[in-house]
Design a protein that fits this description.
Layout: E1 6-7, H1 10-20, H2 24-30, E2 38-47, E3 50-58, E4 64-71, E5 77-84, H3 87-95
Parallel strand pairs: 1-5
Antiparallel strand pairs: 2-3, 3-4, 4-5
Length: 96
């Protein structure tokens, strides 16, 4: 999957920082091919061709995050949430 950029909503940026202690920089690092992201389909989106996906990966600092995003028709990711992976998600990410 190729991501051509990111769309950020201020309310999401604030939630990531306050609730999950995740920065936008860390989220974008998860998508870096060098950090070996794993993408999975989550659900159909409300708009045709804009589905929800999860990206599992590492930040440059070694944190393992799961990022939920809507893949927009122009190839950009609208990030809706991000958090540390659960132990089960880390096992799944490590087994791929």
């Amino acid at each position: 999957m190729t991501i051509r950029g990111f769309l950020w909503l201020e309310v999401i940026i604030e939630k990531l920082a306050s609730k999950h202690a995740v920065s936008t920089k860390e989220v974008e690092q998860v998508f870096d091919p060098e950090n070996e992201p794993y993408f999975r389909f989550v659900e159909k989106g409300h708009r045709e061709g804009e589905n929800v996906y999860a990206a599992l990966g590492r930040t440059n600092g070694g944190r393992t995050l799961i990022v939920f995003f809507v893949l927009k028709t122009d190839g950009r990711a609208l990030v809706v949430s991000a958090r540390e992976m659960t132990p089960s998600e880390r096992r799944h990410y490590g087994q791929r």
